[in-house]
Design goal:
49% helix; binds magnesium ion; alpha/beta; transmembrane helix; membrane; 15 strands; binds adenosine-5'-diphosphate; Rossmann fold; two-stranded parallel sheet; eleven-stranded mixed beta sheet
């Protein structure tokens, strides 16, 4: 069997010795040609030249081995400054990477074998340097020494390993094949899922992708449940660089004073969506399911009445009427009677009200305003019917125990959605001229080819974040639907050249947001140019967020490109590894044996044997354990129709346009957007 099946680079770099010896011989040939080649000294020079060439070749081979070994321990630093990030109209840049093949699995097995490990473990000196740094940490007079061993200069071979953890060999086995890795923009329409545990580089990857989308001139919507200031700052800087600051929108629940306002239930295709967007946030399993259904129905009644009255639903109106439905009911009945052209209804209702006998009322109605009761009785005597009015009446007649159900479920949520500064943000008064904060309108965003940052501050309130995020998904879905139907006719901007602008949606910490509104967005998105990139920690997050396994599966099935950073559990890793084929891996076992001879007179004292045995085994090209050991900022990805790539993502370098902190952005909004004096 050919030795080529083994990579065999974890061994002494013997090529270097050969190179040294060859150079030595060449030196002797040149210095003493007559001695070594007495007949034809001229040949000696040529022979020496040949040896020098061979020595160089061997030297190159040996160097290669040392380099390979070094890369298994520590990868070269990978930082891209803002002006170094490449951009293409047809492709999306992901970083450096190589296609992972059997060769790399083979090298990894060799690197992890006990014989291989010896060559890539940090040496004694390295360990001494680290121990010494600890020991002298508080001794000012020894600082020069610790500074020296910590220095990250190239000459310092003892410098600490980068704080990225994991097993650098995973990328080291392929560094020599590494090149810039791109995916086709066409593939993004099939949506992308990025999985990775906390603090391993998901948000930094989002920054890299968002940067390119902004520069490419696309419509970009970034959902950031945690409200990561760095991401916002990066987007601001990129908009500035691309000359798109006038298209930049900031919605941030954590900074209401500079945020645009948004009515999460203000636009919809069907009125029932209003109730779904609110009740959808309530827990729906077990006992809560009935509460949820009830809350939905109640909200829907209110929303229907508001819309019929020509008023735009918002959280505060819904909260007001859910707790006290009488005024809305009377308003609607009055409107309805007028619409029906009933004469003198006011007098007749008044007469009924005056004559109501409290004893004839049900318990639920006893505490109600008699005037309101009179409205319903009037409609009944006249045999009038209207579905909205009927809904209101049934809500009005519910007894107190029903109301308690609401108190347990819907009211706390509505209270959260309507109180404080974020409450004002979410129920904008369209007529309020004093409030300079713009009102976010998705259709307008799309027309002007906007870039939107949505900070949801989920750490302070996950429910509000979920409600707002999901309403935005729903709004985007309905717009995607319209785009799908009408195509270019909606007056969408054209990109310089030919193509229609795409809508790139990035959803960081996706599990905080995912809800039922999200599934149709993924389904519909294709034809409308919507492309979603979702970033989350584990596969089960999605299920926990949406509450149902089949639906979670549907979401995952709709996210076709998979990028996986370090993950914590094997179940998540299996999302990737389950899709991979098996490969053949070769291992070598050395055997040696000696046997004593039992025949005293034979002259044979013992026999011995040595052999190398090659074993071939079929194993996984990648195991879940590999994904658990990835260093920060590294990933495996299934790209380009299921090809496995190993990726190294760049760390963001210098960017002169980057705002220093949140204050800088707040100042910008204040002066440029709200017209305040600084
Ligand atoms: N490409 C990278 N190379 C090296 N380190 C990285 C890289 N990306 C992220 N990191 C490190 O990981 C930290 C957390 O990154 P972040 O993107 O915020 O993680 P996540 O969003 O997954 O929680 C960063 O502050 C950085 O130190
Ligand atoms: Mg993050």
């Amino acid at each position: 069997m050919s030795q080529r099946i083994f990579d065999n680079r974890l061994r002494p770099a013997v090529e270097l010795w050969v190179a040294v010896i060859l150079l030595g011989i060449a030196a002797v040939l040149i210095l003493q040609p007559g001695q070594w080649s007495p007949l034809m000294p001229g040949i000696a020079v040529w022979a020496a030249l040949g040896m020098v060439l061979l020595a160089l070749y061997r030297f190159w081979q040996g160097w290669h081995i040392l380099q390979y070994r070094a890369n298994l321990k520590r990868l070269p630093h990978y930082v891209l400054d803002a002006d170094e990030i490449p951009l293409s109209r047809h492709k999306l840049f992901l970083g450096k990477g190589f296609q992972w093949t059997q060769t790399h699995s083979q090298r990894l097995v060799e690197a992890r074998s006990p014989e291989g490990r010896v060559w890539i473990q940090p040496g004694k000196l390295y360990q001494w340097a680290r121990a010494m740094e600890l020991r002298y940490e508080h001794r000012p007079r020894m600082q020069w020494l610790t500074n020296l061993t910590r220095s990250s200069r190239w000459w310092n071979t003892l410098k600490p390993l980068p704080p990225v953890g994991g097993d650098p060999a995973l990328h080291g086995v392929g560094v020599e094949d590494e090149r810039d890795t791109w995916i086709d923009l066409g593939d993004r329409v099939a949506h992308t899922l990025v999985l990775g545990t906390t603090r391993v580089g998901k948000t930094r990857l989002a920054e890299l992708l968002v940067t390119q989308d902004i520069r490419r001139g696309e419509i970009v919507v970034v959902f950031d449940p945690k409200g990561d200031t760095e991401l916002l700052a990066r987007m601001w800087a990129e908009c500035k660089r691309a000359g798109r600051l006038d298209q930049f929108h900031i919605f941030h629940l954590g900074f209401p004073e500079i945020s645009e306002r948004y009515n999460p239930v203000g636009s919809f295709g069907r009125v029932t969506e209003v109730a779904s967007r609110i009740a959808g946030q309530l827990p729906g399993s077990g006992n809560s399911a009935t509460f949820k259904e009830f809350a939905w129905r109640f909200t829907n009644i209110v929303a229907n009445a508001l819309v019929a009255l020509g008023r735009r639903p918002d959280y505060s109106a819904i909260a007001r009427y859910v707790t006290n439905i009488e005024p809305l009911m009377m308003e609607y009945y009055a409107f309805w009677f007028e619409r029906e052209g009933i004469e003198n209804w006011r007098e007749q209702v008044n007469t009924i009200a005056q004559n109501i006998d409290p004893k004839s009322l049900t318990m639920a109605l006893k505490s109600r305003d008699f005037k309101a009761i009179a409205y319903t009785q009037f409609a009944k005597t006249r045999d009038l019917y209207d579905p909205v009015a009927d809904g209101l009446r049934s809500a009005f007649e519910y007894d107190k125990t029903y109301f308690d159900k609401l108190t347990a479920s819907l009211l706390p949520l509505l209270e959260k959605l309507t109180t404080g500064k974020s409450g004002e943000l979410l129920a904008p008064h369209y007529g309020d001229r004093n409030d300079k904060r713009p009102i976010l309108d998705w259709m307008e965003v799309i027309r002007q080819r906007g870039v939107v940052y949505v900070g949801l501050d989920a750490l302070s309130d996950a429910e509000v974040a979920g409600a707002v995020g999901n309403s935005m998904f729903a709004d985007l879905t309905s717009i995607a639907g319209q785009l799908y139907k009408h195509g270019d006719n909606l007056g969408l901007p054209e990109l310089a050249g030919h193509k229609r602008a795409k809508i790139a949606i990035h959803a960081d910490e996706f599990n905080e947001l995912v809800g039922n509104e999200f599934i149709p967005l993924l389904n519909k998105a294709g034809g409308s140019g919507v492309q979603v990139t979702a970033y989350t920690q584990t596969a089960s997050d999605i299920e926990a967020g949406i509450g149902e396994k089949p639906k979670a599966g549907q979401i995952q099935g709709n996210l076709n490109t998979l990028i996986m950073l370090r993950v914590k559990n094997e179940e998540t890793a299996a999302v990737l590894t389950d899709q991979l084929a098996k490969v053949r891996i070769y291992t070598k076992t050395a055997q040696s044996a000696a046997t004593d001879s039992s025949e005293p007179g034979s002259g044979v004292e013992f026999t011995s044997s040595n052999s190398d045995r090659i074993t071939e085994a079929e194993t996984d090209i990648l195991t879940p354990a590999d994904l658990v050991q990835l260093p920060k900022g590294q990933a495996f990805a299934l790209l380009d129709g299921g090809k496995l790539f190993k990726l190294r993502l760049p760390l963001a370098g210098a960017d002169p346009l980057l705002p220093k902190d949140m204050q800088a952005i707040i100042r910008w909004v204040r002066t440029e957007r709200l017209g305040e004096d600084s």
